[in-house]
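Bench notes, bay 3.
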Amino acid sequence: MKKLKLIIVFSSFLFISCDMITNTTDYMVFINECSDTVVVAFTFNNKTKDTVYMNNKGTFTGFTLSDFEKGNEGIDESTFLAHANNLSIYSIKNNDTTWVNKNKYNQMDTWNKSEQNDMGILITRYELTITNDMFEKQK
């Protein structure tokens, strides 16, 4: 009987601890729904931190924005929007560069935000679907 009580207590502890947030990770993810290759460059402190290329329609990729330990709640929306403002999204076709106007992605309602608790890690994913109608020809 003592073993059964010990097993129940231990199982309860494991069940509860899986629900506790110990780490957080924030991602910025892009889905290419365009007919052309899309380039996304992320600049931080006036230096290009990372650049990704999505060559085919339906491809997706992204950046890790933050990775915190010990119960931090991750980045808030204003910090996320500051990161989003540091993006350059464009396409190059036949030596023509077509840019996405920042107004198409520097507001929270243009991003799909989702959160998931995975074994005590809170994963926040900010997702932007890039479509042909987001691009503007530069003159």
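Next record in the batch:
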Amino acid sequence: MLDVIGLILIAIMSLGFMGILQPLSIEPGLSPLFWGCAGITLLIIIYRKKKRKKD
């Protein structure tokens, strides 16, 4: 489940960075959307890594 969420976040992050989401009033480049998706994706990666170490 976390893998799917991570992939969706990366897709949104990429689309926002390239400017494809401009019609939705999202500025291209390093916008807050980009950093938000990147941060949440990083948290998912850290969570999964800690979970694997416990098992």
